[in-house]
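debug: dumping io for the single-chain case to check the tokenizer round-trip. Nothing else runs in this session.
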Amino acid sequence: MKPKYLKFDAAFEKKFKKFTSQLTETGRRRLKRKLEIFKENIFDGRLKTHKLKGELGAYHAFSIDYSNRIVFRTLDDGGIYFVEIGSHDICY
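debug: decoded output
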């Protein structure tokens, strides 16, 4: 599924900037590649996209690397709303 658009709020943008500032150049390239893949197909197998459980059951996440992910929600009109970025401890 290709998203119609990506949406995020100021809080996500701030977290994204902080997260990327702590990455190595290799990490930044990996993140950029994952986002490019995501823009083409949010369920591409290379992303390991999965539905979350429990209180976060309305959300999905995809892997940036072994220990980091982006949490998002699909919108009724086909858009994607980014919620959180970071380690698997986020949102808990």
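debug: round-trip ok. The chain has two helices and five strands.
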